[in-house]
Amino acid sequence: MQRSAPSDISVIRAASLRGFGPLVRDLGGDPDTLLRRFGLDPRVLHDDDGLIPITAHDLMLDAAGRELGCTDFGLRLSRAQDLSILGPLALAIESSPTVSAALECASRFLFVHSPALRIAVEDDPSGVRGVVAITYRKELQESPYSPQAMELGMGLLFRIATALVGTDIGMRSIDLPHAPMSPIDRYSEVFGTAVRFHTPVAALRMDRHAMDLRFEGSDSAIRGLAIAHLARHHSDPAELVSVRVRRLLAELVGTTGHALHDVARLMDTHPRTLQRALAAEGTTYELVLDDVRRVTALRLITTTDLRLTQIATVVGFSAQSTLSRAVRRWTGQAPRELRATDEIPATMSR
Hints:
Number of domains: 2
Strand order of the largest sheet: 3-4-7-5-6
Organism: Janibacter limosus
Helix content: 40-55%
Number of helices: 16
Structural class: alpha+beta
Pfam families: Arabinose_bd, HTH_18
Order of helices and strands: EHHEHHHHEEHEHEEHHHHHHHH
Keywords: DNA-binding, Transcription, Transcription regulation
Shape: globular
GO molecular function: DNA-binding transcription factor activity; transcription cis-regulatory region binding
Domain HTH araC/xylS-type: 243-341
Strand content: 5-15%
Largest sheet: 5 strands, mixed
């Protein structure tokens, strides 16, 4: 059973796969085979609180849609889910007094479901007055973009919004960064409003006044207890020094500026202070750098056609032979062997 470290930001709760098994079987597929192919134990389908690598989760959704001939796989899966997949966060959201308060809570604690995902309320990206955007983002430095996973997330966000306050919320559009994968009529059927594609960010655009709509089931006492529980038992991995270093290294690893002193300077601290902070979290700079290289290299080897010499450069290795030795250390396979298999290595993301 997958149980990732709480400090790992590239994970998602297995509840995100609720309904996956029945949907795959209805489409004539074998969910256990798909799960194993992407390094996931089939038992995760029965463990909502289990943490699984978000890269494996997302790539599996894309593969399922492609191989089962179901272009709207993510949208269909969202129909089998509701607010309860968010676990302890669901109670805090549904007991909030208004849409605004619920979104503030979701934005603050969505890391409990997945530290790689973010929800925020922002000004309308199209600049329309009186309109706001509920944006939905994935940390792409940690995991590649997935159209099916994005449609699952946006379909679920829409279902939660309409379940809490109804359909009369002044919906303007659903924005998706990718091209349509299904006929436009299918998107209209699911969302009941205009759907825009190739947008800068995924978003649910609505009239600003909807933020003040009140929930019939609000309860300030329950909300207070739920938020206190979340704050006491869950800490945002993004606040860890090691995670901040990871994110900087994800940007710098292919440049000449990924040495310890470079990262320390960007974080406005002394290298020794940074080393002590990492040690207090049970890691070292060298281990964090190696893990960033591992995640990036294995993703590029298994999901792109880049030449191995190019991948070596991207992850900051001086030669392809250095990359080959590192990949064998990480996976027990040579890069070309890894690329030839249709399985995603379990070490791709932890």
